[in-house]
Amino acid sequence: MLDGGNGTAGAYLRIIDVTKTFGAFQALKNVSLTVEEGEFVCFLGPSGCGKTTLLRAIAGLDPQTSGRIIQANQDVSLLPPSGRDFGIVFQSYALFPNLTVAKNVGYGLESRKAKRAEIDKRVRELLEMVGLADQAHKYPGQLSGGQQQRVALARALATSPGLLLLDEPLSALDAKVRMHLRKEIKELQRRLGLTTIMVTHDQEEALTMADRIVVMNKGVIEQVGTPGEIYREPDNRFVADFIGQMNFLPGTVVGDARVRLGQVQFRHRGTREALQPGATVTLGVRPEDVVVNGGTPSEEDNSFPARVADLDFIGNFFRARLAADCLDGMIIAADLSSGVVRDCGVEPGRPLAVSLPQERIRVFPAD
Q1: CB neighbour burial string for 9-29, b if at least 16 within 10 angstroms, e if fewer
Q2: Dihedral angle computed from the Cα positions of residues 204, 208, 214 and 219, in that order, rounded to the nearest 10 degrees
Q3: Do the strands 40-44 and 212-217 form a parallel or antiparallel pair, or are they unpaired?
Q4: 353 with 294: CB under 8 angstroms?
Q5: Cα angle for residues 246, 247, 252 (degrees, 5° grid)
Q6: Sign of the CA dihedral 184, 186, 192, 197?
Q7: Tens-place pLDDT, residues 58-108
């Protein structure tokens, strides 16, 4: 069991040993997590990892098989969705096509028998908040996808929930609208101080929006951390591979904080696990952390000779594939700025000294 929280002090939501089974299949396996009040947390992982199942368990839409869910110090494990305090936005928006924008936003308040004046005031406030005050009398079919998603968000906020749940809310939108709405949703969440959980398979979305990311795989939590921690300090190869780009290079432990790749020894900053000399490991280094220069290669600074196998212009950087005979023909991807390419004369066939900075190397036990 991996608990992603920091204890229970200040915790708004606690998920305790939650398991969900569908027949013989375990979609969630003893998942535990703590979410602090006002946090924006992203559940991130590949399709089928359990992230949506966990969100639906929190909402009571698909209750857990075992385990407990505590929200605002209340055990909601057995409560139906109507008994829980949350607003939810689905990928498909789920707006009522025969109701106006204003009616859609006020639907939850009308269901709670709120007074008409109160409903009208709240709807006006919310539509102004999401920039749709002039669209109140239109129907969903008359709006763009981005506008419909804003209406769905306003509807989810109408009852002033303590928890906002977002189930891949931006995946149906085009790239420019997604980027704009990411910023809008995050700014709105900060302004309201609303505890928010968002499910996504988009790593860029999680990295730019979340206070903390929960990386899931095959029904378990692989790692919980800030975007910087997840990116720079992946706990295992799965997280390193799923978040961003990573070179994975097979090596052998030769001593304390030293590993051999091909004919070259590299220093690294150590590992959490005790690894014995001779153990097979995987060295991980991100392409942007690979350094090229015109100096003389030396094992003392983790450098070695290589040649540029090919060079692709990506736009704001170049991606080079570097071949190193001394590493038994391994190919290493390196992301280089235009300035580095110009100053070092990087071009296909060019020999270079390549360095893997010690502090940027991650070493994982072999699978």
Answers
A1: eebbbbbbebbbeeeeebbbb
A2: -30
A3: parallel
A4: yes
A5: 130
A6: positive
A7: 999 999 999 999 999 999 999 999 999 999 999 888 899 999 999 999 999
Angle in degrees, CA 262, 367, 50, rounded to 5: 140
- Measured distance CA(264)–CA(140) in Å, rounded: 62
- Position 6 confidence tier, pLDDT thresholds 50, 70, 90: very low
C-alpha to C-alpha distance for 275 and 257, rounded to whole angstroms? 9
User: Exposed (0-12), middle (13-18) or buried (19+): which is 293, by Cβ within 10 Å?
Assistant: middle
Distance CA 313, CA 83 (A): 55
Q: Which amino acid is at 31?
A: V
**pTM as predicted:** 0.90
Measured between alpha carbons, how far is 345 from 364 in angstroms, rounded to an integer?
Answer: 34
The string of DSSP letters for 248-305 reads: EEEEEEEETTEEEETTEEEE----SS---TT-EEEEEE-GGG-EEESS---GGGTEEE
State the Cα–Cα distance between residues 97 and 95, nearest whole angstrom: 6
What is the identity of the amino acid at 118?
E
Q: How far is CA 166 from CA 33, 125, 145, 186, in A?
A: 17, 21, 16, 12
Over residues 147-190, the pLDDT tens digits come to 999 999 999 999 999 999 999 988 878 888 888 889 999 999 99
